[in-house]
Fold:
Amino acid sequence: MSLDPTLREQILAAVPSLRAFAISLSGNVDRADDLVQETLLRALANIHSFQPGTNMPAWLFTILRNLFRSEYRKRRREVEDADGSYAETLKSQPEQTSHVEFKEFSAALSKLPEDQREALILIGASGFSYEEAAEICGCAVGTIKSRVNRARTRLANLLHIETPNDFGPDRATRAVLTGDDVA
Amino acid sequence: MKERKPPEYPASDDSMEPRSSTMKKGKGSAALGRDIQAKIGQQLRSYYDTLIEPTPDRFADLLRQLEAPGKKEGVE
Structure:
């Protein structure tokens, strides 16, 4: 098969973000890589159904999300992840963020309901508009907005962000009091 | 998996005013303040950037293989 070079470039350009999305959804780098690989296979097999000039990243994210969803339904039990191990499965050691903050954040993220997590990531990190995210998730724009709002509120609670000044010390103090593992 | 629920409150573009949230009562409970949103947004992006950084080359290789089966090094 020969792929239009422009399309090929668009696909490759989307891969890093696509993979980060997959890791955020699955909490597991190996599964994420499988998901991305499967997404690319399907994308190429169906490249004729992609309309040039439309949104390649959104198209790929839609494929990956649907793959994840159908797989998730099958393996729901295995995937359930109470809290800590979500971050543990990430092999790459984060450099620019402090490790504690990264772990804490991904643990909090893993506690969000699936639909809220994906909405939050698509809007807040992957850079999609509400309209694009709605298309990717196959729901109404208002639904995406409400999921993002709920996700933010829940994260603020989980991360104990109540006022900006609460940030560092309060979190650590709470961890001591509640016996949460922050290390 | 949760089934879809209708939005709990009208969604106007940037209004972040969760009416029935789990936020504590007291100050800051009426809305998720901009500062808090900004903090979460910043943490989220730095989390995501951390994941993006070490993307392996294997996907570029995979595309190449899919395009030109048989050829080992198919750079045009």
Q: What stands out?
A: The two ends of chain A are 50 Å apart (CA to CA).
